[in-house]
């Protein structure tokens, strides 16, 4: 549950920034939500003049049921997190930024990761009992360019993240996607050239053991 007092409202077309001058801030967690409307935003990490070591474009069909939740590495301060709502003025979003006290992957990255070559993609289907999945992307120190898609049905994008990181070893990417319902597939596309492979781990984060895979699904939602 989010703390309502810490949520900052960002109107459509406007920009908000959070600055951290202390070098003790190693990572920040960014959570973006809406009241059920689409979510469309740019998230950037600024470090010094004209230096953007990490940036991403975020889209969600419904920012209430599928919020954007990621952890951004911020070594060597000072750092500034900038969030721009690029949606229309009718679509405000709520942003909550947490420093250091962030969520961490549950799965062992070395045991669950696999290589995605430049220009290639991998898909990860999930059972209806999986309520959320965790995604960790890294490289061997080279730039990281990728697109993460959450699909529910053929080419039906529920959530899309276009990511760039200047160093995938120093600044790995970690996010949590909500995957309620059935037919959820996570697709990871390495949009970089073939010389820039990445290593990806996509694993269940929360599993509801009370949901049976043999039960009928009404209206595409397993919550009935």
3D architecture notes:
- An eight-stranded antiparallel beta sheet has the order 1-8-3-6-14-11-16-9.
- The model has no long low-confidence stretch (mean pLDDT about 90).
- A hairpin with a 7-residue loop joins strand 4 and strand 5.
- It contains one helix and 16 strands.
- The chain has two domains: about 1-105, GOLD domain (Jelly Rolls), CATH 2.60.120.680; about 105-210, Sandwich (Jelly Rolls).
- With about 220 residues, the chain is an all-beta fold.
- Total domain count: 2
Tally of DSSP helical segments:
1
Which sheet architecture does the biggest sheet show? Answer: 8 strands, antiparallel
Q: Structural class from helices and strands?
A: mainly beta
CATH architecture of the largest domain: Sandwich
Q: What is the CATH homology-level superfamily of the largest domain?
A: GOLD domain
Order of helices and strands: EEEEEEEEHEEEEEEEE
> At the first level of CATH, what is the class of the largest domain?
Mainly Beta
Helix content: under 10%
- So what's the overall shape? globular
Mean pLDDT level: 91
Uncertain ranges? none
Count every beta strand, where a strand is a DSSP E run of 2 or more residues: 16
CATH topology call of the largest domain: Jelly Rolls
Radius of gyration: 17 Å
Strand order of the largest sheet: 1-8-3-6-14-11-16-9
